[in-house]
Design a protein that fits this description.
heterotrimer, A alpha/beta (371), B alpha+beta (286), C alpha+beta (95), A: 371 residues, alpha/beta, seven-stranded mixed beta sheet, 58% helix, C: alpha+beta, three-stranded antiparallel beta sheet, two-stranded antiparallel ribbon, 2 helices, 21% strand
Chain lengths: 371, 286, 95
Amino acid sequence: MKQLLIESKQITAILADPSCCCTFNEYQWETLIRVLRHEGLLARISVQLQQQGLLDALPPYAQKHLHNAAVLAENQHSSIVFECQQIRKSTQQHGVRFYLLKGAAYVFCGNNTNCGRTFGDIDLLVNKSQINVVENTLLLHGWLADDIDDYDNAYYRNWAHEIPPLKHTGRGSVIDLHHNLVPVVSGRAPKIEYFTDNAIEYDGFFVLAPAAMTLHSIVHLFINEDFKHGLRDLNDIHLLFTEYASEGFWHELDNLASKCGFTLELYLACRYSHRFFQTKIPSEFASKLAQCHGNRLVNLLRDFIFSRVLASKHPLYTRWSNSLAATMALVRGHYLKMPWPILIRHTVHKSYRMTVRLLLGKSFFTKEQNS
Amino acid sequence: MMQIRLNLPPFIFDIHSSVGFVEQNMHHMYPDELFINSSRPADYFVGVEKANGLRKFIRPQASFSFDAIEPFKTLPLNHAYASLEWGINYVVANQSLQYVILHSGIVAKGDKAVLLPGPPGSGKSTMTAYLSGRQGWRLLSDEMALVLPETLKVQPFVRPICLKNKSVDLVKRWYPDAKLSTVARNTHKGDVVHLCPGDSSWQQRDDLAKVNAIVFLRYDQRVDLEITELNQNQGFMQLAQNAVNLNLHGQQGFNTLVNLIENSAVFEVVYNDVEAVRTFLEQDVL
Amino acid sequence: MIKKITTWDVFHHETLPGTTPKVTSHSYTITGSTLLHKFSDGSGVVLYQKNTGAATGLTLDIESVLARENIDADTLKLLNQLSASGFLTPSPAKY
């Protein structure tokens, strides 16, 4: 096998401390840029290097790509702000209280996680009783649900914590409209007020308070079966932990996780954020979580899965054990989200689709588009 | 299995394909000196490979990839080489923010360039192919003009010209020695063939040119030559329709378009005779 | 084949769906994200909305129209459209 210029471990080291790529030559940059672009983290490193005043000393090749990535991210941020203004304008007669989640929240509150954060969708949370009126109003203003099959639609409506994504017909922006943070079907959906209490207003939108925002990012990552953006999402959590670290924050986080039953997810986030990025986590806080959840044998299995599915998934790092870990994470994620009878139905349906794809190619379910 | 590094100024592409005729076309279309070893880092990694799925036994498919991402649906295997060329355009259009990119043909006589924007069917590629082969002229690109922000300067991006349907026969008639790729049949643009540009275009692949005129073309069989001078407002609106990444450049992108319009002659040309267009450009525009 | 792409075609020159807002006052100003250029050949002005990528050419002098006290129904209709497309924003009523 060809020797890699940058090992997967180095990628996380760079995310923990971008200054360590300052000595890289152009060949190392070639690999690093490929991998970071694939993980949606090129802009983040770019902005961090710029903030530390290290960008100008890099080889022109690296500067060019880092600069482009930062411009793309910056552009996404201003279109997110614009789209949010449009959403508010469209719905203003209904007096809806919008909570921004994840990427959009980071942009509005301007924290460190906002730096070079790239994202696809706008995640919004509203009160469940308002979801219909918001959906209908957005529809009038050009945000339509993508064509999905009846099964997926029913899944969203009955079991999910959000409605099917709404896409703007003209501008292509996509809204994920939530009424909770965790799928209802999992039986673990928290009382949403625990999260939305103390939310902070920015330009007419609400952003969850730091502990709630952090716990949501954690829950979103660890109660899931898809780790496509695993490395970026874990890096978000690392940045949130690092920026908000204060006695009050850790206390609030512990309190909220206990009340809502997410202490295992909090434990996993601390464990892997520290392992990947050497995040500073108060030892008392960490050991309290470890007492509840730190079973050594279980951790062996968890480490096998998460050290792989959270690491870079660029083909340069493809190993057979990674796909095994991904499959295990998929099963685990589905199991966390759904009770067995529903999971079996879901799996049967999805594997039928997978079989069709395998036989007929992946465009079978895609409608023909005219170009 | 082909794994090559191609110097396509201003970019370096790393390209892989295990489809036999893709490799043959690449060597037929691109001069030898563009094939370089990996001593210089590649900007983008792309490839075109046979697609998986059992359908491959019934109707073989090919899929373009940009590093690990497959941005398009699979296409018939016969389109593999064309889709690689289009894929390279797609990557540049989406990733290369150092340029304001216009979807337009662009040719130059010396360092004086003419932008030839036009919708599909306008004869833009045919006209570009014709002009770039005439004495003193050269190709900068048949698809995208890479404009340096807030200047009139255009960076060449010399590549094979994409010819559709009947224009292939015209080009063969004008340039009997032209090097052509294999045919991609029934693509979304019709039957497609790529044409290798002439030596002078390749030789001047690093030489910037300055935009002198913008000519919106429309082929009409019934009209020999009809020239309308556009005012700046009309010209701007038409040019903006052809801007690929304008929104990513904000104020700077807007200034670039304004600057181009304010400093160029802008025409709409309806034609059926390419030679008449050349005469007009040489005598009245440049 | 370009249809699946995000940045390529999404933000380009789409005129927003014409959802005309209810306007009680005809007083408008150009929004902060709109760029304006007056052409030197006297052919008018162009407005460019940075967020949506929408561009529109006008043959009238928009700045002087906006400064005017009274405008006719047709011009008001145009201003309403420009507002719906994000080029103009209703300004606070003058007293």
